[in-house]
Structure formats: C-alpha cells, structure tokens
Design a protein that fits this description.
By secondary structure, this protein is mostly helical. It is 61% helix and 0% strand.
C-alpha cells in the first residue's frame, strides 16, 4: 500500500474489509459506526477483495488495519480474555514502534 493515504480511502478499505468479513462482524458493529464508515468512505477508491484470498493476505493501509483492530477490540472480541490478549498485542506493538529510530522525515519507520 502506498505511504500516503487519505482518510476517505481508509474508510473505503475498512468498508471493503467489513463487506468481505460478512454479516457476523457487521451485526456486532453499532449502526452509527457503520454509517460513519459508509458516509466517509471514498466511493471511487475501488478497494475490492477477492473472496478466495484470506483477509490477512490482503493489502491494507496501516491506518485501515488500525481501525479494524479498534473495531475488534471494541465490538468483536467474544471474551474478556480475548480482549485482554488483543490489548497486550497492541501494547507490545506500540512498545516496539516507540523503539524504532526516526526516518529522514522524522516518522517512525
């Protein structure tokens, strides 16, 4: 995925991912959240997923992955244990990122 992506494209990727994930995930997500994603997405962006390719092999922006992780944490975790595991993974990822050196553009690599 390209380095710079605008917010409406992120929403388009999340919308496409939700469509690919299907009804179970859509039903667990509050309608207001779904409406925001649908309203703010770039309808011309054209992010489509091949149903034969697993979601984890698809190319998504970091921002869309972060938004999907947030949706999982807030709405899709089935147990407190699953939620805690995800929080631990996200915390570990944040710690690793904070140790990365800054690039020429003063952004994390």
């Amino acid at each position: 995925m390209e380095e710079h992506i605008n917010k409406s494209q992120v929403y388009a990727e999340v919308y496409a991912a939700l469509s690919a994930l299907g009804g179970e995930y859509i039903r667990k997500t509050p309608q207001k959240v779904l409406d925001v994603i649908a309203d703010r997405r770039d309808k011309q962006y054209g992010q489509k997923f091949d149903e034969n390719t697993p979601l984890n092999e698809k190319t998504l922006s970091k921002e869309a992955i972060a938004m999907l992780a947030s949706l999982k944490l807030d709405y899709w975790c089935k147990t407190a244990s699953e939620k805690q595991t995800l929080q631990d993974l996200l915390s570990l990822h944040d710690k690793k990122r904070s140790k990365q050196p800054l690039s020429k553009d003063n952004k994390k690599a």
